[in-house]
């Protein structure tokens, strides 16, 4: 993968992100991974399904990287988000940020995951034992119960 | 490696730490890596040398893990620190923390690196173009210029 911001259908190897940000000027690398948790508020998840509008999602991930470089100066960033069916413990998203000093690496990595959940067009379908539901934006402020993402929004090519 | 807290002479693969903490109950994994930076305050580092009192260092890393479990409850932790000669960009330390939710993973990972630098008996020798120096505790509050760690303190078996 020659990009620093990408969507994939394959299992995520966090080392792919880490390798892209390790460099002579960095003394600190922070990596955040979101993994599929079995229980949420007492309800058992069987598996998740993610869909994205891929070109826009990759563009938005890159925008988040640019925001971080703007805010923290000397930072390098790589972000990958997986789509398709994910099983419990699978990595859905991995972020790696390198900076000269550690405080910035932590802060920028945290910023990245909050921004991803706010603004990247990736939809999640929860599959439980007793049903399933499309969730809207990942902060769950918008519900997609009424409005399932359109085929156009979900296309992953 | 069957331990969650260990000292190694081999290159660190952060995936080894990540694999130890990924689990059904976790929705978040934070990984912090300290890497060898080329320039510090304008001075070029050629390479670093780390020595540790290994049994005590591993015991202290485990203590930090216990402190995190106490403070954050549902957390799993793995920490590895490398010793010996490290080149620029090599990983000196890797920490992985998994928790159900992301705020705790970030906070606990940050706590771990601060505690490592405070209390784990690992000594660092900086090699510059124009000299070398043993540094004391990793927060550099204690200087080892007068007192180079004894052979007993530095033994790495």
From TrEMBL, chains A, B:
Residues forming coiled coils: none
Matching InterPro entries: MoaE_sf, Mopterin_biosynth_MoaE
UniProt cross-references to CDD domains, sorted A to Z: MoaE
Pfam hit, one: MoaE
SUPFAM superfamilies for this protein: Molybdopterin synthase subunit MoaE
Protein name: Molybdopterin synthase catalytic subunit MoaE
Recorded name of the encoding gene: moaE
């Amino acid at each position: 993968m020659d990009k620093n911001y990408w969507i994939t259908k394959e299992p995520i190897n966090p080392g792919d992100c880490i390798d892209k940000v390790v460099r002579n000027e960095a003394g600190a690398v922070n990596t955040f991974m979101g993994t599929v948790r079995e229980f949420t508020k007492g309800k058992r998840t069987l598996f998740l399904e993610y869909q994205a509008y891929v070109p826009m999602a990759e563009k938005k991930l890159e925008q988040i990287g640019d925001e971080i470089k703007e805010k923290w100066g000397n930072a390098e960033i790589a972000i990958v988000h997986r789509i398709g069916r994910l099983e419990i413990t699978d990595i859905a998203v991995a972020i790696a940020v390198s900076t000269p000093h550690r405080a910035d690496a932590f802060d920028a990595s945290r910023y990245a995951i909050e921004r991803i959940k706010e603004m990247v067009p990736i939809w999640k379908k929860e599959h439980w034992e007793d049903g399933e539901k499309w969730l809207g934006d990942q902060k769950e402020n918008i519900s997609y119960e009424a409005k399932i993402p359109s085929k156009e929004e979900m296309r992953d090519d």
